[in-house]
Amino acid sequence: MLHGKNFLLVTRILFSGEGLKMQSINGLGACPYLCSDLLDAKVREFSPRYAEAEGALLGQFRHLHTDIYGNREFVEHLRNRGKFFDHEEKRERDLILIDYDGPSRNVYEVTEEWAFHNGHYGTREDV
Description:
The protein is built from four helices and six strands, in the order αββαααββββ. It is of the alpha+beta class.
């Protein structure tokens, strides 16, 4: 399960957009923060050699630890330090999630408020 305010806020700002399907995350219901179609499209645009199945990256994010170590790992992905294996060239490559050199290529959406429940505690944040 995804836990952590930073993950939800950052992914909503960077990856969501109008008219996209809501994505259910581990039975938590509709989640507008991660739209798998857009995430997959942007990853393939920014990392053309990425050849994993659609939804594989979202699955990887769902399995991050729910502690500081999982947060740290996700931040590494946001800094484009995540890795994927290029099967053609048989080597690891950097996984680009955000185009920092061409910000207009990213998709942005800002929300004023959002709520999240991690299974134990709920939170509602105002930005």
